[in-house]
Amino acid sequence: MNPGDDKTNVSRREFIAAAGGVAIVRSAAGENIQVTDSTANVPADPTKVPGAPATPLGARSAFERPERRALGGAISFTPLHELHGTITPADLHFERHHAGIPTIDPERYELLVHGMVERPMKFSLAELKRFPATTRTCFIECSGNLPLRANAKTSPQSLAGLTSQSEWTGVSLATLFREVGVRPKANWFLAEGSDAAVMARSIPVDKAFDDAIVAYAQNGEAVRPAQGYPARLLLPGWEGNTSVKWLRRIELSDRAFQTREETSKYTDPLRDGAVRQFSFVMDARSVITFPAYPVRLEPGWIEIRGLAWSGRGRITQVDISTDRAQSWSRAELQTPVLSKAHTRFRYLWKWDGRPTDILSRTRDETGYTQPTRAQLDTTRGKPQGPFAYHYNPVTGWRIEDDGAVYLAGAPGERY
Amino acid sequence: MNPGDDKTNVSRREFIAAAGGVAIVRSAAGENIQVTDSTANVPADPTKVPGAPATPLGARSAFERPERRALGGAISFTPLHELHGTITPADLHFERHHAGIPTIDPERYELLVHGMVERPMKFSLAELKRFPATTRTCFIECSGNLPLRANAKTSPQSLAGLTSQSEWTGVSLATLFREVGVRPKANWFLAEGSDAAVMARSIPVDKAFDDAIVAYAQNGEAVRPAQGYPARLLLPGWEGNTSVKWLRRIELSDRAFQTREETSKYTDPLRDGAVRQFSFVMDARSVITFPAYPVRLEPGWIEIRGLAWSGRGRITQVDISTDRAQSWSRAELQTPVLSKAHTRFRYLWKWDGRPTDILSRTRDETGYTQPTRAQLDTTRGKPQGPFAYHYNPVTGWRIEDDGAVYLAGAPGERY
What we know:
Chain A has six helices and 26 strands. The first copy, chain A, is mainly beta. The longest helix of chain A has 8 residues, at 12-19.
């Protein structure tokens, strides 16, 4: 607390001269942007060189460049293989949008709640923040979070990077529904976004009274634009598409709205030719994030690490096989294990240098066990096309005798 | 998952033309920097304009500019009044350093553990990451986290912004100590940083076997340079200064080392002229973050919000007074309540428009109750100088009849 006592007084200019790598740029709009972009001029002994000064925002090390894998302008994948613990930094949260990220002025933002209600109301952002708040750490996952045509050189980011976890804060949708007076016959509501796709989904009213949140904060700060700034719906455990971003309108009704996003898309073909609709809940899934492609292993003790999650509640168990699914052992779960949340698992294993496959399989508190691809295909028929919704097979990694790690499975059937 | 189906294909150029505000800059070193710096050209109807594309990093909204308050190059304060929930975004985590932030190449980083051990060892960063990992969400607080000469126009950021919370991941120090074989007579260890101040503290070995971590990850990603990249000591619940950043050396001994940071500084004068040394644990404290200066209140229902924490364990209770400490009511605690962690409290209150003071007081699972300033001064004598270590009085806010909110208390004795 007493800067006057410090050994060294470091000005910004001095630091730039000394360590050669940091610039603090002020943008035209007056925002401070701290850029650390040199890995070249690192002092041999950092104790002999004055360090960088305190700044309004703390940048990443120039040696750390985690990035989402952005694809086609409308999707980006969280780098799960680079992350530890369970929180996803907000700027690495996966994104999926259907007409880009809208720019919304929070002062002009309004949420309309109307339809089968006693008192239709509009809420400003300030009004939403004035209501009693609630905070919840949970995952969001795109229901299409698995590339069916993955090849051996698929990383955890590409295999499962359409799920991320944040600590969300907002107002319970139940609070807003009590405010407007939802009529007894209103069983469904429409949630509509203000993006150019006007994304809209029908949601059973029961979910609102269970655990739905209109979230305005993510990991402590304002929700980021790619995640729905200034406010989004958050339906813990349900397919990401239903947690409508840039939420502008909620309409109560006695029936589902049959929007484009729940008829032509986000429905699941079944084996008999029927199609499953309103398959909201994300089933339990796990993925090993280390070791995984493109890591190269050395023989010896390693900790197999990964994430497991279920839209139905708490993860109770993760089993690891290091012998191509012949035998399974229980992994350790990092506490606290939260409901509908990414759960970090760890399993200590000594790799003897011989080729094998390692796999993870999880189970949630409802007793549901993550299926194999063969089990899924028996139930639903083999998926057609490049992706399938709600496809959560056991997956794993093949370790070769030179320590190279690839996605496990035969070509075309890698799980 | 199927970008080809999207309603709108948005190129970066189109978005810049359409919404006028986003640029993605590639630095000389190849790092992508996304800058959203226009609040001027916001579309009247965002559904009529293509939105921004997916990017490697998701920037904040141009309308949101949270910043640490940086002071004198060696301190910056977390904007507690702008945050929700309990996680502090990594770039807003408070910082305190004594000779600036060193630049460290992770490939050259080594942690030496030696002294009274069977096998002195050096660990590379890769080796630290190879050990079994553990994850823990906890606060770090500077022991000087209270300006004694605060005036009425002091915000929560200035009043208590030297505490922040992250989800930390690393290796238990106990694991490393078992690896090197700590000798039975080794009761203390020195933790030394590789900053230009060569910050060093003596720590009892018991803390290592209790819950100390050598942390390399913060909120999922690599620890940021201002918080000790590539690895720092983390002593949950203890004064921030002991969680030595840029950790380079640990030396085991049968006595304390009496470093500069535990003799001339980070000691506490007591009433009788004696000085308390090695006062490691941060006592329980709470702070109301809303409403607080510089908010202006309107009469009606509001939710009083804040944070409480204790270095001794879980927070069990936060009481709120809205009548200048005449009566107290229990606030709600956001679950899960974690040990040695920021705990969000909330209390619904109807402000009638009349002047009053609102205060918060917390209690932890050891039965310790946050004292008043008068109680602290009776025990320790009135603090001299601009700050005191481990000074955790009940604080609050004065609300005036026009709704203006100021730090409560008489000038010079504001708590």
